[in-house]
Amino acid sequence: MTEDPAGRLVVTLDLDGVTDKAGLMDRCARDLALPDWFGRNWDALADSLSDPSVWPEGAADRGLLLVVRGWRTYADARPDEWAVAEEVFAEATDRGPGLFVTLGPGGSSKEAADGPG
Q1: Could you report how far apart the first and last alpha carbons of the chain are, in Å?
Q2: d(CA 107, CA 117)
Q3: Eight-class DSSP state of 63
């Protein structure tokens, strides 16, 4: 975790190798250190992302920048699911101040960087 120029805590959600919803939910639980009660469904993800009480320490006061990287394989394998994931990210961002979600490189860290899109 690092900080961005605006002072927000930066957390990377690394989706490298994820090809389905179950993998996405597992990776969210791991990378975001979500609590054991995280239900691994779309509503639970939206609730967790928009709840500063489950964010990493210090993020509630400073804000949280979530960088989603390695997402292209999942988006290509399950475009309908990926569309829902993008809606969940947008909804969580809109629920209140402090959270910003951005798509980072879409490819694997082993490949050339792939821009968002």
Answers
A1: 24
A2: 11
A3: -
